[in-house]
Automatic annotation (TrEMBL):
List of residues binding ATP: K9, F57, R85, T91, R102, N112
Active site residues according to the UniProt entry: H115 (pros-phosphohistidine intermediate)
GO BP terms: CTP biosynthetic process; GTP biosynthetic process; response to hydrogen peroxide; UTP biosynthetic process
Sorted UniProt keywords: ATP-binding, Kinase, Nucleotide-binding, Transferase
Primary role: Major role in the synthesis of nucleoside triphosphates other than ATP. The ATP gamma phosphate is transferred to the NDP beta phosphate via a ping-pong mechanism, using a phosphorylated active-site intermediate.
Residue ranges occupied by any Nucleoside diphosphate kinase-like domain in the UniProt entry: 1-137
Protein name: nucleoside-diphosphate kinase
Molecular function as annotated in GO: ATP binding; hydrolase activity; nucleoside diphosphate kinase activity
Organism name: Salvia splendens
UniProt superkingdom: Eukaryota
Part of the intact protein present: 535 to 682 of 682
Similarity comment: family membership: Belongs to the NDK family.
């Protein structure tokens, strides 16, 4: 089934939003397949955001991501990449709808609490980058209560 890479950024960890954010994905019906608290260095953050290296905010973005521990996760489910982005909300919290994570918990675009893969292919690359050790093999016993 489809998988996505979700990361609670350093501000989300420092602001004690980890349980709230995990709860939203759990309650939706998605399955947690990988989870770790990790502090990354600049080289790693630059690899994760390589597509944005030409942007004027790139250095600030990398400094933000290395500024404290993040919670790296793999979530699985039908359409989890696109639906995960909807749960997260628009990049700029000024435009994220209430009810989304960024809409409810963030103010500034440079402190927007959470990352989610933007496509199935980028999810695959990000999961390989963040979980080279692999992820859990399990199937939720709630599966048939969530899928027809
Ligand atoms: P991610 O899930 O973190 O990848 O966000 P996104 O896919 O919604 O946006 P994008 O990949 O374009 O940008 C990555 C991150 O860079 C954003 O989440 C912001 O934290 C930051 N960012 C994007 N645009 C700006 C900007 O104009 N100014 C600043 N300061 N940060 C930005
Ligand atoms: Mg992105």
């Amino acid at each position: 089934m489809e998988q996505t890479f979700i990361m609670i950024k350093p501000d989300g960890v420092q602001r004690n939003l980890v349980g709230e954010i995990i709860g939203r994905f759990e309650k939706k019906g998605f399955t947690l397949k990988g989870l770790k608290l990790i502090t990354v260095d600049s080289d790693f953050a630059e690899r994760h955001y390589a597509d944005l290296s030409a942007k004027p905010f790139f250095n600030g973005l990398v400094e933000y991501i290395v500024s404290g521990p993040v919670v790296a996760m793999v979530w699985e489910g039908k359409n989890v990449v696109a639906t995960g982005r909807k749960i997260i909300g628009a990049t700029n919290p000024a435009e994220s709808a209430p009810g989304t994570i960024r809409g409810d918990y963030a103010v500034d675009i440079g402190r927007n609490v959470i990352h989610g893969s933007d496509a199935v292919e980028s999810a695959r690359k990000e999961i390989a980058l963040w979980f080279p050790e692999g992820i859990a093999e399990w199937r939720s016993s709630a599966h048939h209560w969530i899928y027809e």
